[in-house]
Model the fold of this input.
Amino acid sequence: MAEATAESTGLKSIAEDWSSDITTFKGVPWGKAMMWIFLLSDTFIFSIFLTSYMTVRATTAEAWPNPSEVFSLTLFGTTVPLLLIAIMTFDLITSSGTMALAVNYGYRRDKKKAVIFMLATAFFGAVFVGMQAFEWTKLIQEGVRPWGNDWGAAQFGSCFFMITGFHGLHVSAGVVYLIIISYRVWRGYYDNTNFEIVEITGLYWHFVDLVWVFIFAFFYLW
Amino acid sequence: MAQAEIPYQEAIPLHDPHSWITKYWFSQDHKVIAVQYGITAVAVGLVALVLSWIMRTQIGFPGAVEWITPDIYYQSVTMHGMIMVIYLLTAFLLGSFGNYLVPLMLGARDMVFPFVNMISYHVYLASVLILMAGYLFPGTLGGPTGAGWTLYPPQAILSGTPGADWGILTMLASLAVFIVAFTMGGLNYITTILQARTRGMTMMRMPLSIWGIGMATVLGLLAFPALFVSAIMMTLDNLIGTSFFMPAINSAFDAGEDYQGGSPLLFQHLFWFFGHPEVYIVALPAFGVVSDLISVHARKNIFGYRLMVWAIVAIGGLSFIVWAHHMYVAGMHPYFGFFFATTTLIIAVPTAIKVYNWTLTLWRANIRFTVPMLFAIAFVLTFVVGGLTGLFLGNVIVDVPLSDTYFVVAHFHMVMGVAPILVIFGGIYHWYPKITGRMLNDTIGRIHFWITFIGTYAIYFPMHFLAIPRRYYEYNVGESAILTQSMDILNQSITITAYIVGIAQFLFIYNLIVSYRRGREAGDNPWEANSLEWRTPQTPPVHGNWGESLPTVHRWAYDYSVPGEEKDFIPQDVPRKAQA
Done:
């Protein structure tokens, strides 16, 4: 058995740190490690969703509807492509900013501001889900169904509702999660910790935002 | 020397049970959860055993039992396969062995999140109940799905396939729920292994069981998403008429919906992106456990520990880029076959390293032929036989004629059916004394071993030479009769052996039940083993495992027959002698 030696440098010392006893990631709480591993697994779920979408889009014989026409919004008589999506993306990225502030205030033990910014994040998340509901309603009124639509390949609606729906569920779960955690922070459940729970919640939230960036790129820009 | 406090582990109080229900049903103790997983998996495994009798009866004696209709036959094939792979092997090796061994072998008080662990079992139980609910929807096309365990569309959801109405939905729902359960358990195993080891337990001192279980869990967390997503997509195809996997279908099949433009091949890719790592999800814990069994009962350190670890890691990594060797005849681009045949043959290298190391551990060892050791040696033999036929099937040009024949059936039953089950038996015989405090009956154990071992060879060895297509309900129909008389005799002998081997398993269950009360007292360390689970202050270990303080590890788990030492084993928590 190789013993860790003080002289080790470079890659060897990194390997020895990681494989040393008790913890692999020093100073990382259990919950945070577990959230990272969960997000890794969830990354695979979304990657497979998006890969499947690309596969059916590439293999289907019919033409794919033009996203900049389908997702355009007519406002004051002018048709702006991707307007709603731009607002939704902006909203979600803003929520990532408030979440980062909440994490920062959490570590400063400023409970009040941490809770306020977590609730602000939850608010932006709820607004996102609301806009998504509006988008779905509009598309359904225009005749898009999971099993078909008037503009081209049936898989357009199938993929759209499945993937944005699954992402929307993640956002909704995140909103509920944020509200529960901010309530518990407020009630003092975590007073004898470093408030790493705020960061753990933040990890999930930033992940959901990041996934949206990929959905945005692959679905609306392609 | 002052010892650093282990973060979190010693600060957080355990949730002690207050009533019978919280102690034995909604328990947060990893050991109870492990037993719950084990009992459920064995129970559902018995269902799979009976299903295999049903299909063997039809193959060996076609028409002899009237109620075995084509529907019943195909449903039995499907349910047998799915139960064995997912609900027995995966659930037992990770849910049961994983839960029991991870905290005990690492010197932790429990899993890092016992509550999540508890939920994990109950969600698994729900998935089993949903799966069995397939039998609650009888009728002309009712019952569970008969699509084969691979559930290939389009046939899996077209009318004409048994269970196309409800059976396929209960199957897909059950799989999705199982994946949720596995994820909750798996997150716990990984986090515990990474962040909750005791003092002195470095990565390279972990017993190989932990390496195997840990790597298999990583594979599960990354591979099950593919099954989860394809289950969602197929459910949508079936329920609301999307066309992810469904191409346009001739109305003669009465598709019911206007399917168009989907890709059945996509499902096969997704399924096997899960399905091939799944083989190693089952195999890696078996590799790890069998390494420990061989080392303990051969009274010798495991040969090439570091290489064993890296072989596990390499197999885990490679298992993600071999999946399409299950699809050589599916109509992929031929270059795909070239790539996947190459990676498949590369994965044989670390696997062969492991087999050599087991053999070299046995070489000139002081072998104790205990029942666990018999099963461990049987595993190595069976795994070699199954692995060698894998080399044939991994090559495109050999695989094409062998596809969908009994050669394939024999191969995967040997390598990932019988072999891991032998390890499960070996593991139960090995750890039962720790779990209950009593030994299993040795004589019954030996009878069980020899019937199982010889029986499985009598069943699967002839299948290599049967050379008949698989998944046929009946071979000799009128002018299309294709079996010779010798093939009929082989089939009959296989079926009869299957009955005998199946009955022998009830002997094992009888042993489990009777020994719980009447078995010989085991003591703390009946096998004279080194790893930490044998060093608990009580046997069986109580909630919290370690009494006042956690053990401190000073050495690896394989200090057997060290020259110049008084005893032939030195447990992990025995300090090293001062260097001269």
Summary: Residues 155-186 of chain A form the longest helix (32 residues).
